[in-house]
Amino acid sequence: MAAERLSMRKLRELLRQRLELKLSVREIARSLGIGVGTVNRYLYRAQAAKLRSWPLPPELDDDAALTALLFADEGKVVAWSSRAGNVEKGRVAVELELKNPGTKPWTLAGAMLRGAKGEELTPLPDATPVSILPGFSK
Asked: Buried (b) or exposed (e) across 19-40, using 16+ Cβ within 10 A?
């Protein structure tokens, strides 16, 4: 199950401490009472979004805009697979957006991926298992 997101207040404070105060990851984690891994995950998102200075640009004053920028990739699952029976041909990346409008949790267990020509794609053993609760997207 995915970890709950930080509040926007904590997220903005995390960004301020890193971008303006230049605090270390450990200092930020201690200050906010969160784990070092959590700080690193948010800083990775900020770096990917090219947020490099504080204060943030005025267009990111809106919480929804900052959320959209930092979590644009959320709801997508990248699965690595090899063509069935032919590992020598290498891997293909499959990007899926999954939604569960039902009332019961849903998983990828037993699901089958098919290529553009209908060929079966076999998930590699290191593929990340996915579980989607009712009403949520992954």
From this structure: beeebebeebbeebeeeeebbe
